[in-house]
Amino acid sequence: xxQRISMAHGEGGELTHELIKNVFMKxxxxxxxxxxxxxxxxxxxxxxxxxxxxxxxxxIFFPGGxxxxxxxxxxxxxxxxxxxxxxxxxxxxIIEEGFSIRDLKEIVKSMALEAEHAGVQxxxxxxxxxxxxxxxxxxxxxxxxxxxxxxxxxxxxxxEGDTVIISGPVGEHGVAIMSARKELGLITDMTSDCASLxxxxxxxxxxxxxxxxxxxxxxGGLATTLVELCEDFRFDxxxxxxxxxxxxxxxxxxxxxxxxPLYLANEGKVVFIVEAEQAKKMMEVIKSHPLGASAQVIGxxxxxxxxxxxxxxxxxxxxxxxxxxxxxxxLPRIC
Amino acid sequence: xxQRISMAHGEGGELTHELIKNVFMKxxxxxxxxxxxxxxxxxxxxxxxxxxxxxxxxxIFFPGGxxxxxxxxxxxxxxxxxxxxxxxxxxxxIIEEGFSIRDLKEIVKSMALEAEHAGVQxxxxxxxxxxxxxxxxxxxxxxxxxxxxxxxxxxxxxxEGDTVIISGPVGEHGVAIMSARKELGLITDMTSDCASLxxxxxxxxxxxxxxxxxxxxxxGGLATTLVELCEDFRFDxxxxxxxxxxxxxxxxxxxxxxxxPLYLANEGKVVFIVEAEQAKKMMEVIKSHPLGASAQVIGxxxxxxxxxxxxxxxxxxxxxxxxxxxxxxxLPRIC
Lengths: 335, 335
Fold this sequence. Notes:
Two copies of one chain form a homodimer.
Chain A: H1 14-28, E1 38-43, E2 46-55, E3 61-62, E4 65-66, H2 67-81, E5 84-96, H3 101-118, E6 121-130, E7 138-148, E8 163-166, H4 172-180, H5 198-207, E9 211-215, H6 221-233, E10 236-240, H7 248-257, E11 271-274, H8 279-287, E12 296-303, E13 311-314, E14 320-323
Helix pairs in contact in A: 2-3, 2-5
């Protein structure tokens, strides 16, 4: 592998995967919870789910949110897609010398507001300051703990024919960040979809049986998220390209800049895999919620037996191609 | 207050206190756990203690440790002084583009080793990469959860005459970092005292009754730590300067650079306040453990009724002066 860290190591794609495998997992291998994303921990009669994320988004204020809001919604959503109700969050700030205290107040206010809205407590914090030029404004780590929903997920029950559903259109956060970065010369009125999804997710999971697994397709986009899922649980999946909801502004931005909407980050979407028989009921429940009003069925599980974990995309002209993890550079510091 | 963040906002002293009060607590005020250091959270029949810290120490490799070891010991110790047995830790990395993967492996290996030694699991992680010049090498956030020891602390029982004990000499981590920063021109063979203290602390708390409260005097040093404690629990405390163990090399470094050993960071020490009658028994238990072999009684609680929370230092010549929080700059990026 490489000798030095490149920006692509932080894109959530192939190189991030390699870094996790060859560096973090290599030395943390003796730890029981291998995936290193969210972990479930037995706690006497209960179980705790715990997850961590650092936020380095650039710019720190963007249409539809800021780094503070994102630091809450991102961690809340990681817990929710792990099948848990978020309970408490810690916040660690690394601030660059010279950073505006007014901006810091805006960010902290925005965190407090989103935490209140989401119904989670911010229970502990830490502040470090580094010299001018040793950080870029402010970085925030949030770590959350949550309690498993009563209704458990069944990833091991994933079977041929299971339905894949996305709760809404893809690419909004990615395009909002791109247009906020003036240097790209992209002008859109797209706002980030960043939102806390756990109330919505809890409602879906409580009312629909047969939910196998969920993910929030953030860094790396829908394609990378589903590739990871296929590999983790060893099934093949086929997406119907024409079924995937992509807003015109996302299409437009991708055409101009040469990006693929399936690799753009989302911060308020969830992708479900559900037993085929429950798909209709699930679509009803999802679409009755504001956060799921534009949900779509986008594909199905093709095979499970002897599957090596491949993601396929069926195009409108009838051809099928394999999708891989995001490889190389797309848009650094998206979250 | 100031308009912009200065390095002193990160020193753990007066300005850090102001920042927490005027920015973080202002907006997080509706949260139940006010101290924002470690928090205790009810969890059905149990209680969880949770704490977070980001590590930005410079240089990342120093005599006696590195940023990885420190990220484990620091969070382990925060849990232990809160009266809890560390159970699980998450790790969030922010890495500068171009950082050496070999160094990253060293750091991760050192974390894994210290976690194994301390008996805690690293259960979840996150990696972000920022452009060259947008961070300084690597920053690590660790967040830990723990379970309260059976023996509970009694900070509200603090009373006049209670004894203050420190587990060993002060200033070693501070001086080790200073001499690792070649630009200060300080040459010593001092190594950092950084160590996981929870086995030691659990042994003390289990075998000695009447332990009121404990703290690890890290950033801001023994003086700042005790000022915070006096203010939090509204008691006055008097230290005997000549009883405080200060290694010769620490004295020497402080003489040269104009620092005060009481404000230097420690990463492997704990200060206890204990009922006076238990102090002798406690010293026996502490001194029988390698991490407490050089422990000393250093002072006592002077008054509790109507106390406003002041820390005093009685000097060898018989005068007494008041000690305050660290104010202004001492040594940035000590942890």
